[in-house]
Amino acid sequence: MVTSLERRIADSLDSRASRSILRRVDQPPSAEDGAPLIDFSSNDYLSLSKNETLRERFLEKLSRTELILGSGGSRLLDGNTTAHFALETRLKDFFNGPAALLFNSGFDANVALFSTLPQPGDIIIIDSLIHASVWDGCRASRAREQVWTFEHNSMDSLERRLKEALSEYEGVRAGETTVFVGIETLYSMDGDFAPLREIVDLVEKTLPRGNGFIIADEAHATGLYGPRGRGLVASHGLEDRIPLRLHTFGKALASNGAVVICSPLIRSYLCNYARSLIFTTALSHSNVISIGCSFDLLEDGTSEKLSKQVRSLCMTFVKKMVQITAGVPMALLSIPRTACLVVQLPDHPASPIIPLLTTEPRPLASYLQKKGYLARPITWPTVPKGQDRVRICIHAGNTEMEVIGLVDAIAQWATDRLGRQSSASNARL
Q1: To the nearest whole percent, how much of the chain has pLDDT over 90?
Q2: What is the DSSP letter of 66?
Q3: For the Aminotransferase class I/classII large domain, which residue ranges apply (predicted)?
Q4: 125 φ, ψ to 5°?
Q5: Which of 183, 59, 192, 43 is closest to 127 using CA atoms?
Q6: Buried b (16+ CB within 10 A) or exposed e, 74-113
Q7: Contacts (Cβ under 8 Å, ≥6 apart) of 86
Q8: Do 161 and 121 reside in the same domain of the chain?
Q9: Picking from 68-77, 269-278, 301-310, which range would have the lowest pLDDT averaged per residue?
Q10: In the prediction, which pLDDT does 242 show?
Q11: At residue 387, what are phi and psi to the nearest 5 degrees?
Q12: Rounded to the nearest 10 degrees, how much is the dihedral formed by the CA atoms of 204, 206, 208, 211?
């Protein structure tokens, strides 16, 4: 017998399938001959997951430790081992912060920050394209009735929101009500950068009583930017003005987990109120060792060399994409204006994330996979309606020939598509 719950669930899935937005966890795609596809999709920006030095160092440290498997419990019980505490101390010093607190993932950390820190009556203002984990934290917050958004990376929109808070709330004017501003430093779908200095200057100018509190998610920037990969906040010299930062280890650092850099007071508060920390088993000992090995490569300068390789490959990709899209309708294929800044402005940082904007993301991704390149279609509800794309990620381990081959495949797809459209138009005539 089919229950009412099963029927409603099936109807929801059928609805998504009919709109081509049904998500699946399937066997990873491979080339027609069974070979792995060339990776232009994952967040392994520095290609550390395949780095032999990192692998050897990790295995060597595993062989010398008595504690490998598990962690023993939550951080507040038996999961607070010497290894966990030592890693936090190391991360505190590396990121030039007063204190550090480990989390099992960036998702858990964002949920903790936004559900726990805002107090009743406070206001949360977040970028409209911020990660889903921040939204989940806001929904669980005691300030959930006052969650506002500002237009993505728009200083005018953020200023209007800040002035709206000042106008409507005496507590904001008096400095008693905190205004939290949530941003990512590098956005995971658009691949563009937050105007960090402008945001800090605006918040401090508009809220001179010090009740503006910026939370910066550095998930996609950690390891790639700043001295020794400390992130974009460090790159801009803003560590003292954005003291609350989130860094994750599951992207460029080829591990998993996250750390919140904060004050000792906030660290203590999170330990007492953050449910995603209190009620979950701590990172395993092998995971802690893995994170430490990745930071060895940041501290010895390896990551900076790999970051330069990423920048060089990004320049190649963007330059060639500008050439092949010159005569192509924007609806069929284009790259954002922000992606082109890396070739227009010599000092502009290169983003490893470059979206191919297209009304046909699934056919394009399928074509590229058949040609041997792993690229994924991204559609609503992951991105706003009308902003479908194929998300390209460049890695230090990609070669220049692979990047050129990818662009050639994209160009061939666009040419084929335009040819079919022209043939269909002529047939109608």
Answers
A1: 82
A2: S
A3: 37-410
A4: -120, 120
A5: 183
A6: ebeeebbbebbeebbebbbebbebebbbbbbbbbbbbbbb
A7: none
A8: yes
A9: 68-77
A10: 96
A11: -120, 35
A12: -80
